[in-house]
Design goal:
alpha+beta, about 25% helix
Length: about 150
């Protein structure tokens, strides 16, 4: 099952602060519900896991994340992720492109486009349910990003 999602949110933080958070895998992973980086493989590649709950079902994936493109001047980042279900019932891949835009009022617009391919049990729940899960995860991610930006490290 292939799913493409485009999501946008705005934050009152300046673009430099948002970029600093969202371009640092070790910091941004703390904003993704159920996600953890378990090991840095090399400069731009990491091992990690993510756990998602969809109603009575849940899925746990282990895999890799790689930053394939980062453009600090344009404030764009492209990430590839691949993972397998811990119990062997499926796999998932993700290509995510994120872009920041400074707004006239000093706020920052964050836009992400995600292309996901899901195989196995997770694909069987259907795109409507998966879309609701993606919306929930995006809303939690946005809330976590806003909280982190309000309390810089």
């Amino acid at each position: 099952m292939a799913i493409i999602l485009e999501k946008t949110f705005c934050t009152p933080a300046p673009i430099e602060d948002v970029w600093k958070l969202l371009s640092d895998p070790m910091r941004v992973v703390t904003c993704v519900p159920g996600a953890h980086i378990t090991e840095k493989i090399n400069g731009d590649s990491y091992k990690g896991s993510v756990r998602m709950t969809m109603g009575p079902s849940s899925a746990s994936f282990e895999g890799t994340i790689q930053i394939v493109r980062i453009d600090e001047k344009a404030r764009e980042i492209e990430i590839l992720g691949r993972g397998k279900d811990r119990v062997g019932k499926g796999s998932a891949s993700l290509k995510m492109t994120g872009k920041l835009r400074s707004l006239p009022d000093g706020w920052t617009e964050v836009t992400g486009v995600s292309e996901m391919n899901v195989v196995g049990l997770l694909a069987q729940i259907g795109s409507r349910v998966f879309s609701h899960v993606a919306d929930f995860m995006f809303n939690e991610f946005t809330r976590n990003v806003q909280e982190r930006l309000a309390k810089p490290d």
